[in-house]
Amino acid sequence: MDQPVKWVRASSLDELPRDGSGRAFDVDGLDIAVFNWDQSYFALENYCPHLGFPLTEGIVEEGAVICGWHGWRVRLDDGGCRGKTLTARRYACEVRGDALWVEVPEKVQSTGSLNTES
Ligand code: FES
Hints:
The protein is 0% helix and 43% strand. It is an all-beta fold. It has a single domain, classed as 3-layer Sandwich (Rieske Iron-sulfur Protein). The mean pLDDT is 93. The protein binds FE2/S2 (inorganic) cluster (FES).
């Protein structure tokens, strides 16, 4: 069964990151990383799937963010990591009027977890 979701206003357009960068927002209690790549916005949980380093501390390159800790490449469009089975959670997002909205679970659960994949 699908989890109930809701759309939450994440930020005004002026606060959004410039092309090729990311910025963190608290969206209904979730730490969400919003990236701007090639004139599109992408929203991921702000935790690297490897060991939880903030993805917004990484470098955006070729549609992925390269984690600043151990260099995992996390794709912005689906949260997948090159050569790894783990993924970052991706959230739908869209510009509505003068703001970016993000689709989040109706009931917020904690995000970020540790794993043992190296
Ligand atoms: S915490 Fe991101 S690559 Fe290790």
